[in-house]
Specification:
The protein is mainly α and 100 residues long. 5% of the residues are buried. The chain starts with a helix and ends with a helix. Helix 3 (62-77) packs antiparallel against helix 4. It has helices at 2-25, 33-55, 62-77, 82-99. The protein is built from 4 helices and no strands. The model has no long low-confidence stretch (mean pLDDT 89).
């Protein structure tokens, strides 16, 4: 029971501290355009680094994964919505798997 309570407290600290520390340290608004632009793209970079490696192992073959990835990149480049990109890339993978 004591180990479980310690684990819960440690997890709470690890989750809570990254959210509170920036508010405590940076009380003023950030005025640097460089830092603002860096912070703007951080969520996209983290999401890409977490999902991209799994793209090529999520299907039955590398070719179908590449077709789905290329479809998603093309539609995202054309600024289509997330739902359209996801559905069309899944459809591309499905159709490719039917023929291969």
């Amino acid at each position: 029971m004591e180990k479980a309570l310690t684990a819960v407290i440690l997890m709470a600290l690890v989750t809570y501290l990254p959210r509170v520390l920036p508010m405590a340290v940076f009380r003023k608004e950030i005025t640097s355009e460089y830092i603002k632009s860096f912070l703007y793209y951080v969520p996209y970079a983290v999401l890409a680094s977490l999902t991209f490696p799994d793209i090529f192992t999520s299907t039955s073959g590398t070719v179908t994964a590449m077709i789905g990835t290329l479809t998603a990149l093309l539609l995202a480049y054309r600024e289509k919505s997330l739902v359209v990109v996801a559905l069309c890339s899944m459809l591309a993978v499905f159709i490719t798997q039917l023929f291969l």
